[in-house]
C-alpha cells in the first residue's frame, strides 16, 4: 500500500499555464484528508514552492516540501527548515568563474529575489515561472560570501547540453550538474538530489521507500524516480525517463497527478 506521493512541479503538477488545475487541487485535498502524505519536490527556490503549497488550499495538512532540487527540506507544520545542503565554497568560486567565462548567464537566489549577472533570451523565464522578482546584478556574484543552495547556467539549450556532457564531474567531487528544463543547467552539492530528500523525509515519517510513489518529467527527477517504490512519468516527460518508469500517467495538461492519486490513494 502506498502512503506518500512525491511530485515534481513544473511540467508535472503544474500545467502549461504554470498553475495547479482545479482537478489536481481537489485530488490533493482528498488525499491528504484521507491521511496520506503529499510532497512537492522542485528545483524552485523555497519561497516559490511554499506559495504553491498554499495554493492547494490544504497547506496545513501537508507535511514537507522539497526545494532547490533537494537542497532544502521544509517542515510545513513546524514552519522550519529541517535539512539544507549548499554548494562547497571552493567549488562555488570555481563555478562562478567558469560561468562568467561561458555563454550562459549565471542565476541564483537572494532572499526572495532571483539574481542574474546578465540578460539573454532565457533569463526572464525563471521569474515568470516562480513569480519572484528578477534583479540583474553582476557584482552580486563577484562579492558573494554566502554559500548558495543552488546555481544555474541559463541559455541556449544546445550549449546547456554540451556543457552538461563535457563538464559533469569536473567541478570537484562535491558538485552535481543536472538539467531541469532544456535551457537550465542546475548546479548543486553532490549529495543533493530529490531522491536523497525523499530518503530523509521517509525517515522523518517512518515510511518505507516501497510505500512512496515518485512522479516527474525531467532529468532532475531521475534520482527521485529511482528511489521511490514506484516511478511514474507523465506523458509529456522526457523519453529517457519513460524508459525507467513503472507507469506513464496522463500529461501535466491532463491532470496526471489527479489520475495517480485517484488510482492509488482515494479509490472509489
TrEMBL record:
Instruction: Please give one Gene Ontology molecular function term for this protein.
Output: phosphatase activity
Q: Which domain of life is it from?
A: Bacteria
Name a GO CC annotation attached to this entry. cytosol
What InterPro entries has UniProt attached to this entry? Cof, HAD-like_sf, HAD-SF_hydro_IIB, HAD_sf
Q: What is this protein called?
A: Cof subfamily of IIB subfamily of haloacid dehalogenase superfamily/HAD-superfamily hydrolase, subfamily IIB
Q: What is the lineage of its organism?
A: Bacteria, Bacillati, Bacillota, Bacilli, Lactobacillales
Amino acid at each position: 500500500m502506498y502512503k506518500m506521493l512525491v511530485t515534481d512541479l513544473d511540467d508535472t503538477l503544474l500545467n502549461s499555464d504554470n498553475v495547479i488545475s482545479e482537478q489536481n487541487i481537489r485530488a490533493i485535498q482528498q488525499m491528504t484528508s484521507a491521511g496520506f502524505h503529499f510532497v512537492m519536490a522542485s528545483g524552485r527556490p523555497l519561497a516559490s514552492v511554499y506559495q504553491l503549497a498554499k495554493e492547494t488550499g490544504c497547506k496545513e495538512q501537508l507535511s514537507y516540501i522539497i526545494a532547490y532540487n533537494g537542497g532544502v527540506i521544509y517542515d510545513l507544520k513546524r514552519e522550519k527548515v529541517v535539512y539544507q545542503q549548499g554548494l562547497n565554497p571552493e567549488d562555488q568560486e570555481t563555478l562562478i568563474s567558469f560561468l562568467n567565462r561561458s555563454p550562459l548567464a549565471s542565476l541564483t537566489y537572494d532572499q526572495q529575489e532571483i539574481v542574474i549577472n546578465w540578460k539573454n533570451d532565457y533569463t526572464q523565464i525563471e521569474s515568470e515561472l516562480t513569480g519572484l522578482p528578477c534583479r540583474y546584478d553582476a557584482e552580486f556574484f563577484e562579492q558573494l560570501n554566502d554559500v548558495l543552495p543552488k546555481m544555474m547556467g541559463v541559455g541556449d539549450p544546445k550549449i546547456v547540453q554540451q556543457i552538461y556532457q563535457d563538464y559533469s564531474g569536473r567541478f570537484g567531487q562535491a558538485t552535481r550538474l543536472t538539467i531541469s528544463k532544456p535551457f537550465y543547467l542546475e548546479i548543486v552539492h553532490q549529495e543533493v538530489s530529490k531522491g536523497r530528500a525523499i530518503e530523509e523525509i521517509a525517515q522523518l515519517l517512518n515510511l518505507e521507500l516501497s510505500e512512496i510513489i515518485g512522479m516527474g518529467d525531467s532529468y532532475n527527477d531521475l534520482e527521485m524516480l529511482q528511489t521511490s517504490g514506484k516511478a511514474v512519468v507523465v506523458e509529456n516527460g522526457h523519453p529517457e525517463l519513460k524508459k525507467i518508469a513503472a507507469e506513464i500517467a496522463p500529461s501535466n495538461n491532463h491532470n496526471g497527478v489527479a489520475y495517480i492519486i485517484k488510482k492509488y490513494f482515494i479509490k472509489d
